[in-house]
Specification:
The protein is of the alpha+beta class. It folds into 2 domains: about 75-280, Pnp Oxidase, Chain A, CATH 2.30.110; about 310-415, UbiD C-terminal domain-like (3-Layer(aba) Sandwich), CATH 3.40.1670. The chain is about 25% helix and about 25% strand. The protein is built from 11 helices and 23 strands. It has helices spanning about 1-10, 25-40, 60-70, 75-85, 165-175, 190-200, 205-215, 290-310, 340-350, 370-380, 385, and strands at about 15, 40-45, 55, 95, 105-110, 125, 130-135, 140-145, 150-155, 155-160, 180-185, 220-225, 230, 235-250, 255, 260, 265-280, 285, 315-320, 325-330, 355-360, 385-390, 405-410. The strands form 5 sheets. Strands 5, 6, 7, 8, 9, 10, 11, 14 and 17 form a 9-stranded antiparallel β-sheet that branches. Helix 2 links the parallel strand 1 and strand 2. The longest helix has 20 residues, at about 290-310. The model has no long low-confidence stretch (mean pLDDT about 90).
Length: about 450
């Protein structure tokens, strides 16, 4: 992460804030406004109550995420499918001597880290960017995943482990065996591990190996100090501990990515056994609901949908999940009459959690521009014929009141037998003319 931070600083893509900032709401407020104004990573060099600088919005644009794995921003789904496929022994994690590699660590207390309170009604400070690593209790396969954690004391965090997440299944399996689940929380890990943690990786796959595959070289690992795990050696801060078996305690409310507060409810208890920090460590923070969180989720869901529907249907060009994760947009090259409707049904069937709404468009539509997508909806679809509603079907899993039940599909493609009637107008020269030849620059 430090190497990437140095690149950002060298090319002027880093906003540095040297004024002393309060971690109680002020840091979040500055972050929200700075993202809207500059859309660049932000480094807070002075934060009250801690010696650690705070970095945020690091991976907040499609361009930066694509840059990490050296692909084009508009080709994420196809290239992700290629890069994330496991490539054999060559990219399995390797253990290294951290000291020999120049990674020096100090012990610190949890309360010495930046304790950031983001939203007005948040019950306490939260760790929002920490990536958990744990091993499947029976097979030992490691998993990477993100889960919010509420600070209670230097020895206790309370973590929301959502249903069906792999870490949740690990924890439940360990509980059935009558034992705690050891885990480590990584703050500021290597960028490719950040991507692999958010990606749709099979339950029995090694996500650390996928991170190496994305990087083009194995992740260098070091052993933890208090638990039987290894972690990426370059990680800025590592919080080691274990999830207690049979223990649930109150967590929340907390301002989540959908823009609402999750209520206070029992969640998993993480016993903190120790914290190690690199010399001059940098603390990575994520403002929930900001692009750094939502975009990463959108890309992982889109890649998952792309892989699944491409396996059963032809003509899939690209997929995105914009303007919010629950809306899937699919670009196709029409192959036959009814093709778009088959795509709609395939998406709604293959993505049971996130695809609350799906829109299918032709290949001349820019699916990353919602104005263009809506143009297709308004000029190429009939509400009485081209929209499908599926009643009483669950979608987003965190939904006790069934607010997200029901699905909507929109066929916004041109009629297959009349496609020539829907050719978009063009103005010759628009793509190539240089206006500076016509207007004097001021």
């Amino acid at each position: 992460m430090r190497e990437y931070l140095a690149q950002l600083r060298a090319r002027g893509d880093l906003v540095e804030i040297n004024r002393l900032v309060d971690p109680n709401h002020e840091l979040a407020a500055v972050t929200a406004l700075a993202i809207k104004r500059w859309d660049k990573p932000i480094l807070f060099n002075r934060v009250e109550g801690t010696k650690f600088p705070v970095l945020t919005h690091t991976y907040g644009t499609r361009q930066r995420l694509a840059e990490i794995i050296n692909i084009e921003p508009g080709d994420f789904c196809r290239q992700w499918s290629r890069l994330a496929s496991l490539g054999g022994e060559g990219n399995k994690p390797v253990d290294v001597d951290a000291a020999e590699r120049g990674f020096e660590y100090d012990d610190c207390k949890l309360g010495e880290l930046p304790l950031i309170t983001y939203s007005e009604r948040d019950a306490a400070p939260y760790f929002t960017s920490a990536m958990f690593v744990a091993k499947e209790p029976e097979t030992g396969v490691p998993n990477l995943s993100f889960h919010r954690s509420m600070y209670v004391s230097d020895s206790e965090l309370r973590c929301r482990l959502a249903p069906r997440h792999h870490l949740t299944l690990y924890h439940e399996k360990a509980e059935s065996m009558g034992k705690p689940l050891e885990a480590a929380m990584l703050i500021g890990p290597p960028p490719t591990s950040f991507l692999s943690a958010a990606a749709p990786i099979p339950y029995d796959a090694d996500e650390l190996e996928v991170a190496g595959q994305l990087a083009g070289k194995p992740l260098e690992m070091r052993p933890c100090k208090w638990v039987d795990l290894t972690v990426p050696a370059s990680t800025e801060i590592v919080i080691e501990g274990r999830f207690l078996a049979g223990e649930r305690r109150a967590d929340g409310p907390f301002g989540e990515f959908m823009g609402y507060y999750t209520p206070e409810e029992p969640n998993a208890v993480f016993e903190v056994l120790g914290v190690t920090c690199r010399k001059d460590a940098i603390f990575h923070s994520i403002l929930c609901g900001a692009p750094e969180e939502v975009l990463t989720l959108e890309l992982s869901v889109a890649a998952n949908v792309y892989q699944r529907i491409s396996a059963v249907l032809p003509g899939i060009v690209d997929v995105t999940c914009q303007p919010f994760v629950l809306h899937t947009v699919v670009k196709i090259k029409q192959q036959y009459e009814g093709h778009a409707r088959q795509v709609l049904l395939a998406v709604l069937g293959s993505e049971p959690t996130w695809a609350k709404m799906c829109t299918v468009v032709d290949e001349d539509v820019d699916i990353y521009d919602m104005n263009d997508v809506m143009w297709a909806v308004l000029t190429r679809s009939r509400p009485d014929r081209d929209m499908i509603t599926i009643e009483d079907t669950p979608s987003f899993y965190r939904d006790p009141h069934k607010d997200h039940w029901g699905r909507l599909g929109i066929d916004a493609t041109a009629p297959f037998d009349r496609r020539d009637d829907f050719v978009r107008k063009t103005i010759p020269g628009v793509e190539t003319l240089d206006l500076s030849h016509y207007v004097d620059a001021e």
